[in-house]
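Dear colleagues,

As part of the handover before I leave the project, I'm documenting each prediction I ran so the next person doesn't have to rerun anything. This entry is a single chain, and its sequence is reproduced below.
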Amino acid sequence: MRTSTRATGTLMRIGLAAGRSTPGDRLRWWGLFSAAFAVAFVALATVATFATFDGRESRADARGAVITDSKHAELLYREGADSVGSRPVSVIFLHPLTQKAPLPAGVTRWPKPGEVLLSPELLRAGGSEGVRSRYGSFAGTITTDGLVTPSERIAYVRVADTPPKDDDRWMPVAAFGAGGGATGEMPDQPSVTSPLLALWSLTGLPALALTVVAARVGSRSRDRRSSLLQALGGTWRHRMIVNVGEAALPAALGTLAALVPYAVAALWDIRLGPTGYILDHRDVLAAWPTAVGAAFVSLLAVLSIVVATHRVHRDGRSTRPSSFTSRVPAWRLALCGVGIALVLTSQYAPQKAQLAVFTCGTVVMWAFLSSVVALVTRHLGSWLAENGRRKGHAGRLIGGRWTHTHPGVIVRLALAMVIGIGIVAQMQVWTSRLGVRSQVAADTHHRIKDTVIQLTTGGMTKAQTDQFRSSLPAGSLLLVRAFHDPGPPKDPWVTIAGSCRDLRTLHVACPGDTKTPAGTSPQVQEMRRWYGDVKFAQTDQVAVKPDGTQSLVVVTPEPGHLAAVKKAAYTLPNPSVQVETLGGNWLGSSRVHLANWIQLFGVTGILFILVAGAVSAAAEFVRIRHALAPLSVLTGHRRVFRSVSSWHLTVPLLIATVLTGAVTAWHSVFFISLVQEGSVSWTVLAAGITTCAVVSLTVGFLGARAAAREADQWKPVAD
């Protein structure tokens, strides 16, 4: 037992010493540090995601209204909606029936009739839009106990008048503390699997790729050491201890560094740009035991990858290491095929599982596509070497043999480009999928701004309509919109009615007019785009039916009056409106903001991939400059450096770029056909392919340049 412990300690010290003396040790040290940081960062982000969802649900339940019958009601409760900018706002109307009416979570006292409590984020974001006085007199803010997240935009409005008894939109409430999933941000909350799929697809995969690249930096000396240990009778456990000892320090420090941003998020609320979401520090702090465990597991994962990427033959016939530099493992090719199969068969899965199957297949495919590229380039290397031998081309002969013998080098260099192009393409496709209708709404807003405003009234008395009209900005037009659907075979249509004066202002002919107006106003053109078949009619009295089948349309003389129209609507007695610009529901759609989350995860993943590419390229420069330096003595010129670098690095990477571009195009088109939304930006894809082609040329040039510099000071050594 004592001997085994002593041997373990000795092997661990050998590993620690190797980490300080191996060629390229500083590069590998920082590579492992970055990889451990990236993997731990994604693991901790996963913990924070689960904790955030749990915290949101518990706080939503704490403020949820308990509906009862009218006999036991303590207050009346009604939900409404609004928007500030492009973000939705939840407006809760309240009317206490007794002095002991319960308070929702986050409210310390009842405001007076006509007063309103706003969330801090709503108060901050809506200051320029007059939200402080939009719903009534400002009486204070809602505390964080009543918000599912500090970035939630919600308002509690105590109405000034007693609600009508026949208004069934008011719900009798006995207490608060259950079923809050339908208020505030909660109705739009997806399942926790949605953000986790995006996180691990766009950020987790690049972090694992960085780990593989960092583990194989300076692998030549490490493989020779592994073969020596095996020749001396060492087992896999002995090799594992040495490899772990070499990687333990940078990996442990990288994992600890990843705990720093988690600790910051546990102490202060953090706004996650560009999403605008504020991460609640209480949720992050409550999950710190799980976070520590996740960090430890991530450290074990990094060390496991280090050990797994340094294996030797087990057949007893060779002491050469079985690594990525000598061959392309067949199981990697098989896994790439499995990923492609999952992508192809996702269309036949149940509809709810299609996206999950497609995403899993995508992750597996991109993770192992570089191995397929390496297999192709390995066969290409054999052909290049034979061609160079026949024609006496030294650079082609050497470059081809290196490519054939060391396909793992191409895997690591191509990995960053393959995953990088995939991430950029997926970000573009998802953004187009989520924003097609929103782009139409944005175009409408660009043409007419906020001059056409819709009011979904849900029933408004004539007195309320007259009061609302009198509160509108000067020169505003008030129209009534009604939807008609007679059923097949007739198509539905929309009628918009108003006074003759208002219709003529919009360049619409009024019944009895002998002269047809020249052209129509831009506002009418946009109404036809959104409403379809629109027929205008004249009415002497603008009013809406109480059954909610009609709504109001306000056309302002100039942009910038949206806040004034909203204030006029929401300060009515017993307000029952939802106010938005034409197409505004698409500008503020929750699906639109998902693109911001994809951008956040994707940009983070691209940063990890850039680090992986930089580490891989730098490691190859270190290797190639030592290997190529003696060739200047053997050949008598330096042109061989450019030739070998081109055939060994640039050509395989260009082939990888072409194959990746083709697979990406197929993958993007297949995804669009699966979800029936979005479009492929061939410009973005072409830009990504061009960038990778430039990188391929640059890597070859810098490799030759590094070898040429090393040749100036090269001296024979007994290595």
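The CA atoms of residues 18 and 246 lie 6 Å apart. The longest helix spans residues 407-448.

All the best with the project,
I.
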